[in-house]
Amino acid sequence: MLWLLLFLGVAAIVLARRTAALETARRLNVLREERTGLEAERAALQRDLRLTLGRQELGRKAENRLGLHQPADSEFTVFRLPAPDHR
Amino acid sequence: MAKVTTRIASLEVVFVLAVLAVLGRAAQLQIVQRSKWESEAEEQRKLRVVLPARRGGIYDRGGVALAITQEYFHVGIAPNEVEGRAATITAIARSLELPASRVRRDFAKNPKWIYYHGPFTGAQVQALRKMPGIHLTPEFARHYPAGSLARSVIGGLNSDSGNGASGIELALDSILTGVPGEEVVLRDRAGRSYESPSRLVSDPVPGEDVYLTLDAELQEIAEHGLDDAIERLKAAGGDVVFMDPSTGELLAIASSHRVDHDLIGNRPSFFTDPFEPGSTAKLFTAAALLSLHRVDSTDEVYGEEGTWSMPGRTKPITDAHTTHGNLTLAKAIEVSSNIAMAKFSQRLSATEQYDALRDFGFGSPTGVEFPSEARGRLPTPDQWKPGFNGPSVAMGYSFGVTPVQLAAAYGALANDGVLLTPTLIREVRSPEGEVRYRHKPEPVRRAVRRDVVQTLREYLAGAVGEGGTGERAQLVNYTLMGKTGTAQRFEGGHYVHGSYTASFAALFPADDPQLVVIVKIDDPKGDYYGGATAAPVTRSMLQEALATRRSAIDRRRLATSEAPATSDTASRVEPEAATSVVLPWPLSGDSTKARDRLPVPNVLGANLRKAAVALHRRGFQMALRGSGQVVRTSPAAGDSLTAGGTVTVWAQ
After folding, report:
1. Which of B434, B439, B349 is nearest to B394 (CA)?
2. Fewer Cβ within 10 Å of end Cβ, chain B: N or C?
3. B475-516: pLDDT as tens digits
4. Residue B198: pLDDT band with limits 50, 70, 90
5. What was the pLDDT predicted at A87?
6. In CATH, which of 3.40.250.10, 3.40.1190.20, 1.20.1540.10, 3.90.1310.10 is domain B49-209?
7. Which residues in chain B are contacts of A70 at CB distance < 8 A?
8. How far is the C-alpha of B72 from the C-alpha of B93, rounded, in Å?
9. Do A55 and B129 touch (CB under 8 A)?
């Protein structure tokens, strides 16, 4: 009788561990699927950002809508950093 | 009775034999053939599945994704398993962006299986995952988020094997490819699979990520600048190379070629197509002449008024820019005189000329990480025709270089004479982000002595200075140095009349070069000279690069290398303090009327370049009368003028 109870106890533990592992695997799969979906979404957004912020697109819009133009080198200034002894 | 006993004994024997046979067979199956049957049972019960490894990504130096691997899905539908047909059809059509009518039509045919190949992204199929009757088949596929940007460098994959087929994808295939994993799936009698977390044999190991030296923004400038130039000049194609001379890192490389009126950028001709460099190569013969002390600064040769019938050559040598009188080596480079270079080259033996070119890396592959790099074309001295090849090589003919070889050679001039191996690979990182490799400059050899480099750089500065062939490349606030080239094109075994390769090689900025720029235009129409075609293209690309928010140009170094005034005029032309100019917003066409009046700087005695820099820096335009040193300005120095107004400068 004791042996039977021991067997049933061990079997129940094994079953519970198996059930928990399968449930974890299922949750892992769901998360993996979600990650795949999010990665795809990120890639699509990155591509859209790249196209939207690309020089061709942005430059054209800046010229047409805002009347801006590509500056010549005489139209901007690179500030000189103060010499180390003046900092 | 005896008969009965015999029969019973016989039966017993038979029975014992039968039992022994059964036991023997059992022993054979379970002991002798145990492993065989065990593995067969395993085979039936378990299925080993290969788990594909994600291929590593390719990024630019700033982390912009150029090539990444994503999981895509093919969608299979079992209509008899579907619950709620109308809702499923709507969900499929919406998720997969298919016309609902098409999906409805596919269902109406009552097939056992409907298949949409796609491939569809994980985001697209997310809503379908839980729906009964819909089966997804995952697959890794390569995705290029930056579109066509740098595609000829990145290359592509073999559609069958998924391995690299060209470009960086091929060159670094072993690094980018991961190690596939393996898992065991349990199967039941009906062949249905059951995943089990305890059956994973090995996880797949993703490939490593490669960070290129390319700068996406500069690459975009190079590609569009080149395409615009080819269109405008009605050219057949061209190449552009931007390189950091201190590290050998290639920052942007573009090529474009006209195929049936369309511009195609999929041929990496900057690595693969040698061309005769023309006058951009005159500097290397000059390097040999100076290194071997065959010429000093006062040596002169007669310019022959622009046409010279050299003994031993059937065709006369001509100069596009006719100069009168004698030319020093410096002047020969400045005005790009073929005649003077041909004459000077006679002071060198074939071996000496050949060795100089070899020292600069011509005639051998640069070693850049690209699978199909050409070695160029440089015949050995024993193949040279006496009196012919020497002058030809001095003029930039009779040998072929790739644009990247030319960039590396000019890089040596910026790098105090040390030739570096150009590179495309900046870093390799593990999937966890750990740096596995970081590029360090790889010196090949000292191509030329330091003191000779200094002289060559002065020659280059002269070539883009006033009266130089590359004058049109010059910027206003920053100086560059460079050399133009125009070479007749050699195709099909002969030189094509009226067809030229125009090129320009530049170091920017002049006093502390951060960039080597090579621009090459194939067969431009109209004014085909390098100074009129490739030089202005270089100028506009540099202007764009300077105006970018995140540029490969180090602005801290640039701030100290603006075009300086000459020492004697520096105190006069430099403003004492910054001048604020307030403009109304939005800008209108006549907004300059609202600008302040500013004092005209004193540029008397300065040469025209310094005067132009000083006036432009104050925001004035300049009208020029004469050449030489400034003797008078109108308005005079100290008078005030509206910002944007024109100062007339007299020089002599």
Report:
1. B349
2. N
3. 877 889 999 999 999 888 888 888 999 999 999 998 889 999
4. low
5. 44
6. 3.90.1310.10
7. 543-544, 547
8. 17
9. no
**Average confidence (pLDDT) over B303-322:** 84
Chain A residues within 8 A of B65 when measuring between CB atoms: 43, 46
Nearest CA of chain A to the CA of B550: how many Å? Answer: 12
Low-confidence ranges of chain A (pLDDT < 50): 86-87
Neighbours of B440 (CB within 10 A): 8
* Level-2 CATH architecture, domain B216-579: 3-Layer(aba) Sandwich (3.40)
Chain A hits for B122, CB-CB cut-off 8 Å, are 33, 36-41
For residue B341, count CB atoms less than 10 angstroms from its CB and return exposed for 0-12, middle for 13-18, buried for 19 or more: buried
A25, B195: Cβ pair inside 8 Å?
Answer: yes
Of B71, B196, B562, the CB nearest to A36: B71
Q: pLDDT at position B571, please?
A: 36
Nearest CA in chain B to A65: B586
The reply to whether omega before B431 is within 30° of 0 (cis) is no
Q: A36 CA to chain B: closest CA distance, Å? A: 5
- Mean per-residue pLDDT over chain B, rounded: 86
Q: Architecture of B586-652 per CATH?
A: 2-Layer Sandwich (3.30)
**Which position has the token pair 């100028």?**
B539
Which residue has better confidence, A46 or B460? B460
Nearest CA in chain A to B478: A73
Tell me which chain A residues have a C-beta less than 8 angstroms from the C-beta of B71: 36, 39-40
Segment B16-31 shows an average pLDDT of: 94
> Which chain B positions have a beta carbon within 8 Å of A47's beta carbon?
145-147
Encoded amino acid at B119, one letter: P
CA B210/CA B423 separation, integer angstroms = 13
First to last CA, chain B: 153
The residues near B560 (Cβ < 8 Å, ≥ 6 apart) are A80, B512
| Tokens coding B536 | 């202005």
- In a mutational test of the B interface, the residue from A70, A73, A87 whose CB has the highest number of chain B CBs within 10 Å is A73
Nearest to residue B280, comparing CAs of B623, B517, B37, B94?
Answer: B517
Q: What percent of chain B has pLDDT over 70?
A: 91
In B572-600, which positions are buried (b, 16+ CB within 10 angstroms) versus exposed (e)?
bbeeeeeeeeeeeeeeeeeeeeebeebeb
Look up the pTM and report it: 0.76
Cβ <8 Å between B220 and A21:
no
By Cβ distance, the residue of B123, B198, B542 closest to A37 is B123
Which token pair is B231?
């269109």
- DSSP-derived secondary structure for B175-228: HHS-B-EEEEEEE-TT--EE--GGGEEE--BPPPEEEES--HHHHHHHHHHHHH
Q: What share of chain B is helix, strand, coil (3-state, %, to 5)?
A: 35, 25, 40
Give B632's strand partners: B650
DSSP-assigned states of every residue in B383-404: GSPTTTHHHHHHTT-SSBB-HH
Assigned token pair, B228: 């615009």
The size of the A-B interface in CB pairs under 8 A is 95
Angle at B142 between CA B140 and CA B144, to 5 degrees: 150
Q: Map out the domains of chain B as residue ranges.
A: 2-32, 49-209, 216-579, 586-652
